[in-house]
């Protein structure tokens, strides 16, 4: 190959590289002047809607910070936030099909899910528990033998619950539901003995219901649920932009304000969650 030909090919590749790097999610956001964010309406205190129908919650606030941070990274004077209501059943598909740029709720990080989508840094750590009536006398997983327990279909919680019951309460019956309010209502109406979900969202679901009926949670958790934000796979520059914002919130301690706003009434962060914040405060 002649030197002039080699030089031309080298320059061609060098010029093409920036264009290729800008064909991902960040370039889409820059082009549209907007970021599309997905959320779940009934996952308080992480994501829900206020009286005006606007998204709110711990995860929603973190995603707003991410949107503002990405806008700054792209040098945009203004970045619109377009919110899309999703369900637990379609949230991952909405990300993998790129209908939304990020899903801001209570998705648990699993290796199986990572085949189709990518994840942010961990935003919260929760545990799976079972909500029961206050006078049920149920305190441990073994107490659920012969009982009926509801759980949301297709979740990591369902998988963990079935595995735990097979070990500690093999005679328990599992019923599946589509939403948290549906599961709590079954407990309220005494149609099931318990409803399994992440501990913090169970507290949020009870607090959101009128009537003040008394409930209790089991004294033990049956799973660990590391929450993350779901983003399209194969886009490392976008993942870096998302994680850069989260790492800054963890590193500077600004995460404490968001936690206190939405989770403060439940007590201070657990030792595990505090350690998660600390370890992920990655420097620039």
Characterise this structure.
- By secondary structure, the protein is an alpha/beta fold.
- It has two domains: 29-125 and 226-279, D-Maltodextrin-Binding Protein, domain 2 (3-Layer(aba) Sandwich); 127-224, Periplasmic binding protein-like II (D-Maltodextrin-Binding Protein, domain 2), CATH 3.40.190.
- It is built from ten helices and twelve strands.
- It has helices spanning 3-21, 25-32, 58-73, 91-96, 156-168, 180-188, 199-207, 236-252, 255-263, 271-279; strands at residues 34-40, 42-43, 47-49, 55-56, 80-86, 102-108, 117-133, 148-152, 173-177, 194-198, 215-217, 223-232.
- Strands 1, 5, 6, 7, 8, 9, 10, 11 and 12 form a nine-stranded mixed beta sheet that branches.
- β3 and β4 (55-56) form a beta hairpin.
- α3 packs across α8 (236-252).
- The longest helix has 19 residues, at 3-21.
- The protein is elongated, with a radius of gyration of 22 Å.
- Gross morphology is elongated
Q: Please, what is the average pLDDT?
A: 90
Number of domains: 2
Proportion of residues in helical segments: 40-55%
CATH superfamily of the largest domain: Periplasmic binding protein-like II
What kind of oligomer do you see? single chain
Structural class estimated from helices and strands: alpha/beta
| CATH architecture descriptor name of the largest domain | 3-Layer(aba) Sandwich
Biggest sheet features = 9 strands, mixed
**Alpha plus pi helix count:** 10
The ordered H/E elements are: HHEEEEHEHEEEHEHEHEEHHH
Low-confidence stretches: 1-22
What percent strand? 25-35%
Q: What is the CATH class name of the largest domain?
A: Alpha Beta
Please name the CATH topology of the largest domain: D-Maltodextrin-Binding Protein, domain 2
What is the rounded Rg?
A: 22 Å
**What distance separates the N and C termini?**
43 Å
